[in-house]
Structure prediction request, 103 residues.
Amino acid sequence: MWDKLLVLSERMRRNLDLTREAWFSPASYCSIWRPPACCAERAYGVVQAHAMRAWEEECRFPRRHGADPEIRAALKPEQIGEAFSLERQLRNVDKIFARVFGE
Prediction:
């Protein structure tokens, strides 16, 4: 079955874009939840609010998140960028596929 797996990268990217990139929210949450700078509940609330507004306003989640003064005060620009790095999110894909499907 898996040998017939077809991945349409353009379709996959289009599907990811439909979410307004809100799938980055776990990474952004982890980047700002660094005690004592921000408690987990506050970090979750900030990220959740930006994800919901991005969806409602049809704008990109990373743009809303990165423009927040509270987040900009807590994180350096490169830390914000790292939270929204597709390469970072996919860095272990080959290892995961190898583990699941074999070498």
User: Anything to note?
Assistant: The chain is about 70% helix and 0% strand. The radius of gyration is 16 Å.
